Amino acid sequence: MDRYAIANRATHKQAHRRLLQDASSLSYTSRTSSMLVTVGFLHEWLLRHVDSADRELGEQLLAKGYCEGGWSGNKSIRAPH
Fold it and tell me: Residue 75: which of 2, 9, 64, 6 has the closest Cα?
């Protein structure tokens, strides 16, 4: 996101940090909670996140002319090797 100067990238990164904190606190605060509760939480978060923030991220990248395979400017959303 930083590499391509995506709008709202700080908010997007914060959402990822919050997920890690929430998932971590689930494992510490509720040792007796079932794995299904944790998996359910992650599933719901991922569905919402991918359908909103990640969709917006993809749209911004596409609007800039980027695609998975790259484009004529030799830029790509793939990580450098």
Answer: 64
- Domain ranges, ordered by start, for the chain: 1-81
Digit-coded pLDDT (tens) for 18-39: 888 887 777 665 555 577 777 8
**What SS3 string covers the chain?**
CCCCCCCCHHHHHHHHHHHHHHHHHHHHHCCCCCHHHHHHHHHHHHHHHHHHHHHHHHHHHHHCCCCCCCCCCCCCCCCCC
Is 73 a residue whose pLDDT tops 60? no
- Supply 3's token pair: 């590499």
